[in-house]
Design goal:
262 residues; mainly beta; Thrombin, subunit H; 15 strands
Length: 262
Amino acid sequence: MIESLLLAVTRVSTMLGQGQLTNATGFFFERDGRLYLVTSRHVVHDETERHFPDRLEVELHVDPQTIGRTVQFSIPLYRDGKSLWREGLDSAGAIDVVAIELERAAMPKSLLLRAFTPAHLVERLDQVELGTSVLVVGFPLGVHDTLHRLPVARQSVIASAFGIRFQGKGYFLTDARLHRGMSGAPVVARETAPRAGRADLSWLLLGVHATRLDVTNRDATQDESLDLNLAWYADILMTLTQKGLPQALAGAPAAAAERAQP
């Protein structure tokens, strides 16, 4: 028996031509029969770091009888000079989350995969309290079960008021020791009484991990890292996966975060 959550998360390699640039994390989100890969925006395009891959490679499990059997699946990031990912803006600026629709016809016929759906999103903000225990699932520094090709989970807690935009932006804070390679990882909380639509993946999808939070005046010789991290509210996915929208998207607020803005 394999925890279904592990099959909803995949290792992401950013590629330029035939060369690999970096490792990251992504997860699957399904809506109205369409399947998306979700990860951080800076994984696919980062002006600050001059990181400009032209495609991603993800690892897909293809054999229910042999969990370690996988294939690499290539996802182009551009077509005819135009980006293929969907990104968004809210009232405070860019959101560090993208969704890329996957071509099911090009994917292996046999897949051992789970996907989050709109049913996994939080319906009421008071479901999540300060200090709530959560998991962040991914590939820290590329570490994973190399035999079975599965990610690992880091224990964390909600470190800021959930539903209130921290510093006025569409994310909340988590408290955990995380590392490079976790960008794009889902932040999830256990669902104790799964409702219809999420029985085989009994987790609430709260956010998308982006990066560590640091302060400019920290003395690295005296002050340890804060171990605080930014996670973007996951309900942005309801905007990014709307049918008929163009790949590039602007002016799309994360609904729950917007509602809670003081």
